[in-house]
Amino acid sequence: MAEPLLLLDRRAGAGLVAQLVAALRRDILDGRLRAGDPMPSTRGLARELAIARSTVVAAYEQLAGEGYLELRQGAATRVAELEPRTAQAPAAESDASAAPAAASPVARIPLADLSPGVPSTARLDERAWRAAWRAAAAHPPSWSPPPLGVPALRAAIAEHLRSARGVHCSPEDVVVAAGTSEALALVARALVALRGEAVRIGVEDPGYPAGRRALERHGATPVPLPLADGGLELAALERALQRRGRGRLHAVMVTPSHQYPLGGRLPVADRLALLELAAHADAFVVEDDYDSEFRHTGAPLPALASLDGGERVVLVGSFSKVLTPWLRLGYLVLPAHAGLRAAVATARAELDTPVAGPVQLAVADYLDRGALRRHIAATRREYTHRRRLVQDALGDLDPERARLTAIDGGLHAVLELPDRAAERALVARLAEEGVIVAPLAQYAVGGDRGAGPAGVVLGYAGVGDLALAAALERIRAALERGRVSD
Ligand SMILES: Cc1ncc(COP(=O)(O)O)c(C=O)c1O
User: Fold this and answer.
1) Are 221 and 139 within one domain?
2) Residues 187-232: pLDDT tens digits?
3) Ligand 1 residue neighbourhood (C-beta within 6 Å)
4) Do 248 and 130 share a structural domain?
5) Does residue 193 sit in the same domain as residue 285?
6) Is residue 138 over pLDDT 50?
7) In contact, 34 and 105? CB cutoff 8 Å
8) pLDDT band at residue 1 using 50, 70 and 90 as cut-offs
9) Looking at 26-40, 219-233, 280-294, 383-397, which range is the least confident one?
């Protein structure tokens, strides 16, 4: 997936000059702009990006000072010859070296990266954030962090879950991990140790590819389960859980509050039914509660972990959506099952402690200050506003061409399309216009020929309003012109 190269966000912490410098510098270092390439005129680029010309001039001057650009009186500014180490183009782009150098660099700078999974950090309470890191730095270094996590963080997470999700657990139930993927690695290893080699875990299809990969890498086999109305189809789950012998499911992994990526949510009755089916089959339930703090319509539903009485649900949580994936921080909340707890502790010891002590202490302090609660409230308002922009722009499309769904919660929406050909065409067309979106095929176990509707996922949380509005205009125009089936 392409990196966000240029998100000129007027409300971001960094100024526009700094943002432009960073985007162009990265383009040069990544080889997208090569030595000798002419840069667009300052006037042209300013017009293209709807910013002041003086901003572009300042950015070019800074890049020239850093040695990335050559400014020449009366001639076009060009990309400078860099040291061999940095000038090397990435191998994957070697074909592009034959392309004419005249292609406009601007065309290659994305206007908006709507890849899902990127939260907004524009409203981060910087004072609390800095204070938390200062507190962590003041803590004397000790031996390595306790394997299951620093007690202050485990306690802060338990308290956060109580107040934000109504999940009552004790700090001892919480195991710190390096994000959801690493938490799932622990689950897979623990189940393999507990149930034998051929552990099979039911997964939603389409579903979270990184989650499937984490399970697979650690010895479990993901078994695709179909969806109905954007959520797990219970009848299919029931059939899968009835299998015995080698076909048996040892666990099922679900996103009940906001199915990823199709956005359905399981009503309470279905949650209870799911728990009953799992109990009957003696299977664990892995609940990926990745973004349930962000509900835009209707009240949040209780987590499976709070309905099951601490029997068989392993709750997996992450700070990637509520705060930032930059932290690589997540956690597990374990049920009372003594065998599973011992197996997770062994897996944790085998994989070593992945989250550094200062990170754990800083986040614990940030939570203790109430800063995360305030941050979630502020970003929820921000996302509600962005969601409205998406709805206003795409909510009334001709349903024959595209249908906006998955918009009731979380940080993304889905635009369902008639077929995979339309999906491929829209992704490619938008990429040409500088708008990055994710094809739904990416989430299906069978890829392009996989289960679920065709369409694209639009992450709307991490882009500024202006870039989002411009991107939505282009999406709408592409659909209205019918160009996606070109
Ligand atoms: C379904 C789902 N679960 C969890 C996560 C968070 O993953 P991590 O904590 O590894 O960043 C994401 C992020 O995109 C997700 O989409």
Assistant:
1) yes
2) 999 999 999 879 999 999 999 999 999 999 999 999 999 999 889 9
3) 117, 179-181, 208, 255, 260, 288, 290, 318, 320, 325, 330
4) yes
5) yes
6) yes
7) no
8) very low
9) 26-40
Q: Are 387 and 258 in contact (CB under 8 A)?
A: no
Contact by Cβ (8 Å): 41, 76: yes
Query: What residue owns the CA closest to ligand 1's atom 7?
Result: 180
52 neighbors 42 (Cβ within 8 angstroms): no
Residue 237 sits in which domain range?
126-370
Share of the chain above pLDDT 70, in %: 90
**Among 242, 249, 295, 325, residue whose Cα is nearest residue 4:** 325
How far does the centroid of ligand 1 lie from the alpha carbon of residue 179, in Å? 7
- Both 324 and 378 in one domain: the answer is no
Is 10 a domain residue? Answer: no
Q: Is 104 a member of any domain?
A: no
Q: Torsion-angle region of residue 332: left (phi > 0), alpha (psi -120 to 50) or beta?
A: beta
How many domains does the chain divide into? 3
Higher confidence at residue 351 or residue 71?
351
Kindly tell me the burial class for residue 75, based on how many C-beta atoms sit within 10 Å of its own C-beta (0-12, 13-18, 19 or more).
exposed
- Nearest ligand 1 atom to the CA of 117 is 14
Distance 335 CA to ligand 1 centre (A): 21
Which residue carries 């070019």 as its tokens? 60
Is 115 within the bounds of a domain?
A: no
Average pLDDT, the chain: 88
241, 243, 248, 249: CA torsion to nearest 10:
-20
213 & 357 share domain: yes
Task: Find the CATH number of the domain harbouring 44.
Answer: 1.10.10.10
Say which residues have a Cβ less than 8 Å from residue 434's Cβ, sequence separation at least 6.
107, 109, 110, 111, 112, 474
Residues 6+ apart with CB under 8 A from 23: 5, 6, 109
Of 104 and 178, which is predicted with more confidence?
Answer: 178
Average pLDDT of 345-364? 95
